[in-house]
Amino acid sequence: MTGTGMAERSEVTWPMAPKPERLALAVAMVDDWVTSRLVPGVSLAVAWRGETVLAHAAGKVSAGGGGPVAPETRYPVTSLTKPVTAAAVMALIERGDLYLDEPVRRWLPEFATPTSEAARRQITARELLCHVAGLPKDDPDGPALFAREAPFAALVESAAGVPLAGPPGQRVIYSNVGYWVLGGLVAAAGRAPFAEVATGVVLQPSGLAGSTFTPADDEVPSLARRYGPDRTSNTAYGRRLGSPGGGLFATASDMARFAGAFAHAAATSSRAGGVSGASVRMMTTDQTATAAVPLPAPNPHPLPATPRRGDRPLPGGIPGMREWDACPWAFGWEVRGDKRDHWTGDLTSPDTICHIGQSGCLVWADPRSGLSLAVLANRDLGSGWATGGRPEHSPGAVDSPARWARLSDIVASSV
């Protein structure tokens, strides 16, 4: 301790640099994904101690006559956007524009009307950031809104009216709905369009020059095309929408360095992503155990007393994909914890932060090893090609191997 009572910054002893022969195995694996026609294209980046040590690309930006993928190719990274949105929320909190425990209804009155559930009226950004607000995964009206190219404000308004799927503070329910609401908070508190605020307070301070919410029209031929049921990001509408839950276009190197910056900051009590060390701690450690919402009576779903910090994380996960008895989640970033059958493999540490994107993207960073990985592909996850197929996870791909976990183990073992 220093004389001021503040803890001194910890000294981190990193392992040796990644072994080239291990990274070569990772390259061979993703190359095989392309040659076997599993994915049209893929970009792989590995960073160590904040520096890119591998940037590799294979295949094409589109399955037809598209050009070759390059390390600087931007992909629609879908839900890898969420940690950026979370950082934007924390940046606004740090400058006094938001308060973590203010009810959402103060900024978005439509979120809780006088006839709304009592629980809903108490929900704050804290619960939304770590997916414990009780909101469902998706807005049932979302597809129709996208089909008619509804504006950002209409999507926020629709999300704000989606009924709760369960009582807040009881379970991790990964929620795209919640992040649309957070996007509305950022726009309202930042007094500017969400994408503009997030770019100014997160992307630019982070040096993510290869990332944008609004790629220019002349960049379209070089963008990786998304293949799957939802192809909104392939349209002019999708490229200008700026979705807070999935609207970012980014390179693999940018994503690896962004995640790696948070992991390094978590290990050294420093800044990352445009936010302070205090915010970094909340974005890299489990927040579910302290996010219970005390509900006023009468209440058909009584909650226990708010758990103390350090209690077991809440159960839950991503409905229809993976759920665990203990599902630690920070603000924005997922925390690996003790989860088994996980996309980050067997060899990453429990402190690893990560996120997946439905468009075929994964990013993780391990503060213990100093390694971070981003692998971006242009095939949606619905078939289970990346996460591994089991009847309860991906009924159409029972025999699919857990390719992401295998790749992660190769990279994690390189140091």
UniProtKB/TrEMBL annotation:
Residues 220-239, 292-312 are annotated as: Disordered. SUPFAM superfamilies: beta-lactamase/transpeptidase-like (SSF56601). Residues 34-381 form the Beta-lactamase-related domain. InterPro entries: Beta-lactam-related, Beta-lactam/transpept-like, Diverse_Enzym_Activities. Pfam families: Beta-lactamase. Residues 295-305 have a biased composition (Pro residues). It comes from the Bacteria. This is Beta-lactamase class C-like and penicillin binding proteins (PBPs) superfamily. It comes from uncultured Thermomicrobiales bacterium.
